[in-house]
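Structure, all two chains, one model.
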Amino acid sequence: MFESLSKLLKEETPFALVTVIEGTNKGAKLLVQPLEKSLEGTLGNESLDRVAARDALGELAAGRSGVRHYGLHGEAREEAIQVFIESFAPPPQMLIFGAVDFTGALVKVAKVLGYRVTVCDAREIFATKKRFPQADEVVADWPNRLIDQVGYSLDTQDAICILTHDNKFDVPAVLASLKTKVGYIGVMGSRRTHEDRLERLKESGVSEKEITRLRSPIGMDLGARTPEETAISVVSEIIALRTKRPMHALKDTAGPIHG
Amino acid sequence: MFESLSKLLKEETPFALVTVIEGTNKGAKLLVQPLEKSLEGTLGNESLDRVAARDALGELAAGRSGVRHYGLHGEAREEAIQVFIESFAPPPQMLIFGAVDFTGALVKVAKVLGYRVTVCDAREIFATKKRFPQADEVVADWPNRLIDQVGYSLDTQDAICILTHDNKFDVPAVLASLKTKVGYIGVMGSRRTHEDRLERLKESGVSEKEITRLRSPIGMDLGARTPEETAISVVSEIIALRTKRPMHALKDTAGPIHG
């Protein structure tokens, strides 16, 4: 296994290493590779390996490491076996554009989910670390300029949330986002703002197919009333979109956004 | 207005007081009463009052106070007017039964949403403040005994989440929860555990109508893979249930729970 490990680390291929830290077979290891869909080693039995591998893939996708508990054969919510799941992968990124009332709540929820969070707003007075202490980075710049700089590093597990609600900033931000491989592009705004924005995007040459990548108005249709509830509606949409579960998204429903 | 305030405070009636702290009409106040559906005072104009009152009701329902920004006539995501919304109401409560891997994540997300969170587990070794530092209270006791003690204080804005996944604990917990007016009763478990549990509840004399109050398996069908994603699926369900939005809940869908 150590040969595989050193090869994966050298190639910067994402993987998770599960180690029994309490219970039968202490020290036993299972190496989980998402790209190869392969397992190497064992924690003691096949059913335990299967459950631990599933959880390891979840942790890996979220870029998180942590302790999990199982029964002897992988039973949930039992405590016989304690494992440490170590993820070797960069955490997913979330870029939030707009230092507005909704931003702080979204930063908090995104951090619980393991994102590396960057807040960006062109207005220096609002884009401060003091306003968003939990953000990993706060940048005072135009959204499209930041995306032009870091966009190459964005992939399907990453998210862009455009909360600026000002066509001067968000049209260029959407145009720049569409050039990246980012998995989620959410754009906040009332249903009317959304319609206006679509017109402007089409005038800028954005195709119908590109527009299907946008989640606008942003979030699941939860009738959210507070910034915190809105943040929950955004991350719910991100999760359901990634797992391809059906959902009632604001982009597909009609009627009032707030409950 | 001060007469109304002192009356509401004396009667312990929930209300929100909105005060302009920056911008035109600094110091102007709007008193929002959810039970009477009435407004008293003004922040300067009707459209600003309407938007601020809507947000104040949201904050009040979440038991939170905080600063919001608007345009001169209540436009979202503008900054001309800064108000402080002060909620006078106890925060909503969440009781979480079972000190398991999912509990810590649910505590974190519930705290972002403004809940007062109690974690309860009969196993003293797991029910410790050290494991759940963000919980307001950690109780080592049987779930049904805690509900018998505090159940009288639970109402529609409160939530009970039963994560024990052990019929020995969760059947009595469900029976005790059903005696309260709590707005949300979520019960974790695989689809098979859910079926077994229903049988036991019916044997205990629980009616079909009472069973419709249970959200089981707990949460929205997001294909959640980590404890954090599961926590998001739970609070999404709580929000959508309260705002009566349609949703894909695990209780109404079939197929695998995890993505």
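Chain B touches chain A through 55 residues (CB under 8 Å).
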